[in-house]
Write a structure and sequence with these properties.
The chain is built from 11 helices and 12 strands. It is of the alpha/beta class. The structure holds zinc ion.
Length: 295
């Protein structure tokens, strides 16, 4: 199944999904669902929505996110190739439909759906069906002990949304950072759902402080990466943010800032169908009062 970029846009905003083939697919565009083994009993399922982290072992299966509802059978078939246990838990990194769309299907299969309190609150606001709501919520941190590891979900405030969680698989040296990272793609900051560039930067710095060179980093979108990849992403954000800040502080209008093209050298690699350099710079410009005083 191919979902055009407008499908991603619609999913993030809760609208209907348009399915067509992208002309020039970027690594963050939706594509066929595929599963890849990362290490031991850890896998990543990518393609049809946000990247799914999979721990599949003797206790069954624990998923980080679940893409979209129509993909559940495909996702279950892929997992079934490596583990015949039940889906025990699904932890949503945040509310967006390309990360939570499978909740109702998996809940019906018996999985316990977990997320930060604000994920449940915002999904209720969006009037999703009751079966799609997280049933176990937390305000700060929660740990799941399964398959011989501890998965610690830590809430970060006002980054991609106001309900983001970072999941550290202790001992396994794997972290799923959700949509605080779009790897090699300009990020979407959902300011209508409490997201903020002000919170995004310290959220990333907080992850960098806790991981090492060997850590496997699963981003919400784009290829699985490592600490160096996350540092490259942070450098891009800080560089463009600094330029937008100095241009706007000197009195430039949005049109003048866009003409100066503060994302110039990043555009070729990081622009994708949903967020190009111009859109990212526009978000930074329009929200600068919120973040410009941040350290
Ligand atoms: Zn998202």
């Amino acid at each position: 199944m191919k979902i055009f970029n407008r499908g991603l846009f619609a999913l993030m905003l809760g609208g209907p999904v348009l399915m067509t083939q992208p002309a020039n697919a970027h690594v963050c565009d939706f594509s066929d669902v595929r599963m890849e083994r990362l290490k031991d009993n850890f896998y990543v399922i990518s393609g049809g929505g946000g990247n799914i982290g999979v721990s599949a072992g003797e206790d069954g299966v624990f998923l980080i996110d679940d893409q979209t509802a129509p993909l559940t059978p495909e996702i279950l078939a892929l997992i079934g190739e490596v583990n015949d246990g039940p889906i025990r838990f699904v932890l949503n990194t945040h509310l967006h439909g390309d990360h939570t769309g499978g909740n109702e299907n998996l809940g019906r299969e018996g999985a316990v759906i977990l997320a930060h309190d604000n994920v449940r609150t915002r999904l209720i606001e969006r009037e999703v069906s009751a079966g799609a709501l997280p049933v176990l919520t937390f305000n700060d941190q929660v740990s799941i002990h399964i398959n011989g590891i501890e998965a610690r979900a830590v809430h970060v405030e006002n980054a991609h949304t106001d309900g983001d969680s970072i999941i550290y698989f202790k001992g396994a040296n794997v972290v799923h950072v959700g949509d605080i990272m779009f790897n090699t793609c300009f990020p979407f900051i959902d300011t209508n759902s409490g997201g903020s560039f002000k919170g995004l930067i310290p959220a990333i710095e907080g992850v960098l402080a806790k991981i090492d060179e060997e850590t496997i980093v699963i981003p919400g979108h784009g290829p699985v990466t490592d600490k160096a990849g996350l540092e490259t992403y942070l450098d891009m954000l800080v560089t463009i943010g600094g330029r937008v800040r100095s241009l706007k502080s000197s009195g430039k209008t949005l049109e003048e800032v866009l003409a100066a093209n503060p994302a110039a050298e990043f555009d070729e690699v990081w622009s994708w169908s949903f967020i190009n350099g111009e859109r990212f710079v526009t978000t930074l410009y329009n929200t600068m009062e919120d973040w410009a005083e941040a350290p």
